[in-house]
Amino acid sequence: MANPQRLRYCPEVTEAFPFLNPLNSIPGVRAGWIERVPDLPITGDRDEAMRLLRPHHEEFVRNFAGPDAGWWRAEQVHGTDVAAVPGSPQVTAPDGLPVVPGVDGLITCQPGIVMAIYNADCGAIWLADRKSGAIGLLHSGKKGTEGNILQVALDEMAARYGTRPADVVAVLSPCIRPPDYEVDIPAGIGAQAERAGIGEFLDCGLNTAADLSRFYSYRKELGKTGRMMALITKDIPA
Q1: What is the pLDDT of residue 15?
Q2: pTM recorded for the entire structure
Q3: Is residue 190 part of a domain?
């Protein structure tokens, strides 16, 4: 899906969120994040929401990576499987765009690959290996965290790219937190990062259920809500 053009740096979508600084300070790595789309009413289920959000997210990707950029997305089935891209099979999602079926995480070591994960209370985890250049993006909610998708991704990155956890920078996105949810997903992910020996882990500390002006919250909005989007890519070398 990725276009072999040089990816275009767009400061307003990569520098607006300080919690992404540990990733964006790595040469060649860029991480992005889109919050709630203002004044876009969403009253239906996930499929309807994704269809409504599609043009906004496509515009964001164009600003992030260039006008012809495509991107790789995980189907997100609340599991722990992780796929390497490109090369993984894809199916068409209800919003008309392709996804890698059955997975909740994507990894790559190839420049020019844009990867995306959606969330609306679950955590998105960005990963970047300072040494090997491998990157990853994970969807870790209650079930993904219970199954330790973070460790699954680290193991897969180690097997494919020689990644060592000590060389990895990991960032956790805004997600739901106590007292708005009975399970402390961020605490679980933080503990997993520590046990794995990740070199640098940052939890942004933001609660999606606490600020509906900025975030979508599946729990707070009783399922009638949209999705935020996390992105990561590696620039194509000169």
Answers
A1: 55
A2: 0.93
A3: yes
Number of domains in the chain: 1
Q: What is the domain extent for residue 60?
A: 11-234
What 3 state SS string does the chain have? CCCCCCCCCCHHHHCCCHHHHHHHCCCCEEEEEECCCCCCCCCCCHHHHHHHHHHHHHHHHHHHHCCCCCCEEECCCCCCCEEECCCCCCEECCCCCEEECCCCEEEECCCCCCEEEEECCCEEEEEEECCCCCEEEEEECHHHHHCCHHHHHHHHHHHHHCCCHHHEEEEECCECCCCCCCCCHHHHHHHHHHHHCCCEEEECCCEHHHCCCCCCCCCCCCCCCCCEEEEEEECCCC
116-140, pLDDT tens digit by residue?
Answer: 999 999 999 999 999 999 999 999 9
How high is the mean pLDDT of the chain? 91
Is the residue at 1 inside a domain?
no
147 is a domain residue:
yes
pLDDT digits (tens, 9 = 90+) for 60-118: 998 888 877 778 999 999 999 999 999 999 999 999 999 999 999 999 999 999 999 99
> Which CATH number goes with the domain that contains 125?
3.60.140.10
